[in-house]
Amino acid sequence: MAINMIPRIKRLPRWQKASLAVGLGILLYTIVGFLILPTVVRMVAVSQLREHLQRNVQIEAIRMNPYTLTASIRNMVVFEPDGENRMAAFRELFVNLQSISLFKWAPVVKELRLDGLYGSLVLHKDQRWNFSDLIPEPQEPEAPPPSSEATEDGPFRFSLNNVQLTGSEIHFQDNVRGKTHHVTDIDIALPFLSNLPAQIDIFVNPHFVATVNGTPFNLLGQVKPFAGSRETELTIDLRGIDLAAYMPYVPPDAGVRVRSGLLDVKLGMTYEAFQDGSQAFRAAGTIALRDLDLTDGDDHPLVRLDQLKIDIGVLEPLAGIVRIQEILLQRPSFTITRLPTERVVRTSEALPLREVFRNINLPPPIVKVAKATIVEGQLRMLDLKPSIESPSSESSTDHTMVDIPSFSVENTQVDIDQQVVGIGAVTGHAGVVEIRRLADGKLNLDIFLPPSDAGDPPPAKPGDPWQIDVQRVNLSDYAVNGVNLIPGDPLTVTVDEIDLNISDFSTTPAKKTTIALDCRINEAGRLETRTVMTVAPLAAEVQLGLEKLDLAHFYPFLKPYIGVVLADGDLSINGDLSLATSAATLPNVIYKGSAAITDFRTLDRLRALSLIHI
């Protein structure tokens, strides 16, 4: 029958032959596009993947539409070498190619979507990955091929639209450290990415959303990678990153451990690369640490705080600009541990801070901080050193050295290049400082001094000293408590109701600073001073007023030097004290004024009989 049709077809008019050929071509195109090609591609893909990956690979189906130029691969799975566990998989890979690609001589993809991606990464105890066998061995580099004329005409052109990764997850199993990490709910979108001339000024809006170990991660932005400035804008939003979960990846000899701590980051960043080779990077936003608990390598406490929040106004490291709106430290507790045996600290020559920045090719920045605040801060001391009476016993005591309910520093500027620090105002209220004699007879303040066998510091190289300027300091209602200051005598000294006001403090030579100090000593005594001084050279003019200082309270200090018991006596001073120093002569101290002791009474040490009573 088919043979009989051939003569009939030959007798058809030319237009009917053409119509018949077009119809047969469309039929063949349809059969091949819809039925034959997907089956062949699936068979070849599975065979080639199995051969190259040396793993079982399954593809459920491949669908193609030759009229809409779409193709999809569904339910592809790559198994582990054991043939049971999945190494990688996805539910669907969908591609929609536009016919305009033929006219632009460049691929133009209307939509590229990967849904349900699954990945499993395993680090074995022998430091090999579950995909290590897929990585080719390094080979000798081959000479680059000569550049062709086509590549010299310009970069490869393309246009990708609606690029999406949805409903995906990646799991990482670390058998070396015994940890498992999960990145789930991955959603990535690139609405448009193109370097075609017609689309060069269209912004790309990337979007990345995921949950990393239970912590939401959100990144939004705009990118113009093919314009003249190559501008990129990103917004990062991270909340509640558990820092303790990543401690196994910190070297054991780091000397610090994170017991708990949550990190929040919300930053907007802009990066620009210009055609002249210059670059610009800007960032702004907030960084916060919450519920932080740090210990040293021996589990001794270091830092605990409720929150550290840094509000960054402008950060431009390439231009040397740092503007911080606020630093807030809520309920911090810093602990200094005195070990049973002193660790020898060898001093070394420190590189100037401005040289550190220059060594990493960054300009030394000018740092401006509008306000830094501490709320309910503490400095504690943990003493592990045994007492003099029981040097072999193991015991520990701790106490609060500094307690600061509120403290703030405003309008600070640090010019690292010029080595100048400027502070507008320092204010604090109701702080308490405790000076205590420890079990071995030393004061707690000694912990800030270098060990006796630390060695002499290296000679300092000649250089410009740092200049420090503070416009105003106002500390009100402070207190200093001295506890057990003399071995064997329970001496306690309390200096409270301290009001300290400093104006125009400066290390600039010959610049005058004004200091006013009022305080109460052991409830009855009163000290008032007004001082005008210079730091370089050190000189001071002090108006000194002291009333009713109870000398008997300080008898344990005087006991080694006098042979009687100081039972009573009030000291009062009213006068002017001047101090002058120079490099060529000894300090010159002159006092002009009056001094009086009232209600003075001493006793005989042996019989406690009154000796002198004035």
Describe the structure.
The protein has 614 residues and is mainly β. Helix content is 11%, strand content 53%. The chain is built from six helices and 27 strands. The chain has a 27-stranded mixed β-sheet that branches. Strand 13 and strand 14 (321-330) form a beta hairpin.
Mean pLDDT: 83
Distance N terminus to C terminus? 148 Å
Unreliably modeled segments: none
DSSP helix fraction: 10-25%
Percentage beta strand: over 45%
Keywords:
mainly beta, 27-stranded mixed beta sheet, single chain, 53% strand, 614 residues
Quick structural gist:
This protein has 614 residues and is mainly beta. Helix content is 11%, strand content 53%. It has helices spanning 2-11, 14-53, 101-104, 149-153, 353-359, 555-558, and strands spanning 57-65, 70-79, 86-97, 108-115, 118-123, 159-174, 179-194, 207-212, 215-224, 231-242, 256-273, 279-296, 301-316, 321-330, 333-338, 366-383, 397-415, 420-429, 432-436, 467-483, 492-506, 512-521, 525-534, 539-550, 564-580, 588-604, 610-613.
Topology:
Blueprint: H1 2-11, H2 14-53, E1 57-65, E2 70-79, E3 86-97, H3 101-104, E4 108-115, E5 118-123, H4 149-153, E6 159-174, E7 179-194, E8 207-212, E9 215-224, E10 231-242, E11 256-273, E12 279-296, E13 301-316, E14 321-330, E15 333-338, H5 353-359, E16 366-383, E17 397-415, E18 420-429, E19 432-436, E20 467-483, E21 492-506, E22 512-521, E23 525-534, E24 539-550, H6 555-558, E25 564-580, E26 588-604, E27 610-613
Parallel strand pairs: 4-6, 5-6, 14-16, 15-16, 18-20, 19-20
Antiparallel strand pairs: 1-2, 2-3, 3-4, 3-5, 6-7, 7-8, 8-9, 9-10, 10-11, 11-12, 12-13, 13-14, 13-15, 16-17, 17-18, 17-19, 20-21, 21-22, 22-23, 23-24, 24-25, 25-26, 26-27
